[in-house]
Design a protein that fits this description.
The protein is 37% helix and 24% strand. It is of the alpha+beta class and 206 residues long.
C-alpha cells in the first residue's frame, strides 16, 4: 500500500471499470489536462507567466487579442480537453451570468473561450495579496488596523451580496479567493466557478 494510502481510499473495481479510471486513455487525458502550458502564443492569446495553480486549473497572465490589455486566463481543468458540445453550451450559458456581474469588489469575467481544445475563462487581472496576509500586515503596521480591516471586510460583503442578488453563489469563499490590491481594494475571485463545476460534474455523471 502507498505510504499515504488509507483503507477505503481505493474505489471498488466495478466503479473503476464503469468510468474507465484504470485505462491508459483516462490516465493520458488526466496528465494532459493538468500539464502546464508553455509560455508564449496560446491560440490568439500571449501567455506571459503562470500566476496560480489549483484543483480547478491554472491561471496565467496573458495578453488579450484585439484589446491588447493584460488579463488573467484560467484554464478550467474541470471541463478537461475537448468537452462534449452540449456540456460546453450549458457551461457557456451559466458563465454568461458571471459576465453580467459589475461590482468594484468582484473580479470581472470578460469571456469564456476554447483554445486548442482547452476551455478557458478570460478575466480581469488582479494584482494583490490574499486577504489574510493583507490583514496580518494591517494588524502589525497600520495606525488604525481595526478600522482598515472592517472597511475591507464590509466591501467584500458588498461584493458577495451583489452576486447573490443576481443568483450567483460562490461556494468557495476562502482567503486565497479574496485579493487586496496595493490601494486596499478587495476583489473576490472565482465567483460561481465552484458551483458551475460542481453542476457540470453532476450533469456529466448522467
Amino acid at each position: 500500500m502507498p505510504e499515504h494510502a488509507h483503507p477505503g481510499d481505493s474505489l471498488p473495481p466495478e466503479t473503476e471499470a464503469l468510468f474507465g479510471l484504470g485505462s491508459d486513455e483516462w490516465t493520458s487525458r488526466l496528465q494532459r489536462a493538468h500539464q502546464s502550458r508553455p509560455l508564449g502564443p496560446f491560440g490568439p492569446y500571449g501567455l506571459l507567466a503562470e500566476i496560480g495553480r489549483g484543483s480547478q486549473g491554472e491561471v496565467y497572465r496573458a495578453i488579450q487579442p484585439g484589446t491588447g490589455r493584460t488579463v488573467a486566463i484560467k484554464r478550467i481543468a474541470g471541463l478537461g480537453l475537448a468537452p462534449d458540445p452540449a456540456l460546453l453550451d450549458r457551461f457557456t450559458r451559466e458563465v454568461e451570468a458571471l459576465t453580467r456581474l459589475s461590482h468594484p469588489n468582484v473580479v470581472t469575467v470578460h469571456a469564456l473561450d476554447v483554445v486548442s481544445g482547452h476551455t478557458i475563462l478570460v478575466m480581469e487581472l488582479v494584482e494583490g495579496r490574499s486577504i489574510d496576509q493583507w490583514a496580518d500586515q494591517q494588524w502589525a503596521q497600520a495606525p488604525s488596523p481595526l478600522q482598515s480591516v472592517l472597511s475591507v471586510f464590509g466591501r467584500v460583503c458588498s461584493g458577495v451580496a451583489h452576486a447573490h442578488q443576481r443568483g450567483v453563489i460562490h461556494r468557495d469563499i476562502k482567503p486565497s479567493n479574496i485579493l487586496v490590491t496595493a490601494a486596499d481594494q478587495p476583489k473576490v475571485l472565482d465567483f460561481g466557478i465552484a458551483r458551475l463545476l460542481g453542476e457540470h460534474a453532476a450533469f456529466s455523471a448522467h
